[in-house]
Amino acid sequence: MKATLMYCAGDVRTEDVPDPVVERPTDALVQITTSCICGSDLWPYGSMAPADGPARMGHEFLGVVTDVGAEVAGLQAGDHVVAPFAYSDGTCAFCREGLYTSCVHGGFWDEPGQQGGQAEAIRVPLADGTLTKLPVAPDSALAPSLLTLSDVFGTGYHAAVWGGVTERTTVAVVGDGAVGLLAVLSAKLLGAERIVLMGRHEDRTGLGREFGATDVVAERGEEGVAKVRELTGGEGVHVVLEAVGARPAYDQSFGIVRPGGTISRVGVPQYEEAPVGFGSLFAGNVTLTGGPAPTRAYVETLLPAVLAGTVEPGRVFDRTVGLDGVPDGYRAMADREALKVLVTP
Predict the structure, then answer these.
(1) Total domains, the chain
(2) CATH classification of the domain holding 95
(3) Residues 33, 119: one domain?
(4) Cys bridge to 191: 21, 23, 118, 167, which one at CB 3.0-4.6 A?
């Protein structure tokens, strides 16, 4: 079968690899029908050392179950399923609390030794705890929106939930990528009446307005901070949803949060050190939260609106490629020619 491998920065290839097989009784095999390239994939695309490759890529996918291990009880061949970007058993103490990304037996698709979702098929460990059956056919027009439940919609929603967004909070979203735009949509779903989107790409911020942003701030850094402060009467916002992961985005978030407010990070941090002491978060009673989104916890919450068509998170996809087009899809996203690339194996 074909799969996507990254050899080093800028070097992504579609190659033939062995077909997956059931290795453990809790496994399922899934023929992938819809996948995509994630903004977080661009970090290794810009920096991976040759010694770290080749790596199988992709952590978001829909597919059809083709085989199951002897201990899989809730799935059978023919089921249409969505997979979160982390696999989990669904039964450990952390899974029972909804924190599936901390499953003591789980892990992530992008880890060494795992099979990525930018491929024709995949072995899914801990299938009963990981996969969710979907009540529509694989060729449904809803597929792009259903795919966002795997990562970007669930991640945006996680940022908003952990940030404590309600109808009483003024929200700012830092970043106009797919996660940032769906953080806007999530804040709207949770009742926020004022949502400031900080982004400078007009095609993206236009979609952000359609998702619920009431204000757009294109300025960055100190100018961006000053603009948000101006919009909020000098006070800042109650909740910042940081969907980038770069240190300047963190600094910008701190600059616009009000005393007593919350910064909720879901952009994968590309730094280890940032101000959290007395002169920053402590003095203003500012809360810092967020982390890898346990998107499995939100599938049942978000699925009904997607099925009903009352939300269309799949609008973040603006280009579709087959597996052979994945390398150019990476280039297009890195060059900001595409927001998010859908992959149809």
Answers:
(1) 2
(2) 3.90.180.10
(3) yes
(4) 167
Helix axes 299-308, 152-162, angle to 10 degrees: 120
d(CA 84, CA 95): 13
**pLDDT (tens digit, 9 = 90+) per residue, 152-206?**
999 999 999 999 999 999 999 999 999 999 999 999 999 999 999 999 999 999 9
- Give the three-state DSSP class for 77: coil
Which pTM value belongs to this model? 0.95
Strand order in the sheet with 194-198: 215-217, 194-198, 170-174, 237-242, 257-265, 287-290
How distant is the alpha carbon of residue 242 from its chain centre?
12
Task: Evaluate whether 4 touches 56 at the Cβ level (below 8 Å).
Answer: yes
Amino acid at 285: N
* Structural tokens at position 21: 């097989």
Residue 79 shares a structural domain with residue 8: yes
CA distance readout (Å), 204 to 22, 41, 185, 197: 41, 19, 13, 10
Residue (of 302, 268, 313, 208) closest to 39 by Cα position: 268
Both tokens of 179, joined, read 């996660």
Question: 236 is in which domain, residue-wise?
Answer: 154-290
Q: Are residues 23 and 90 in the same domain?
A: yes
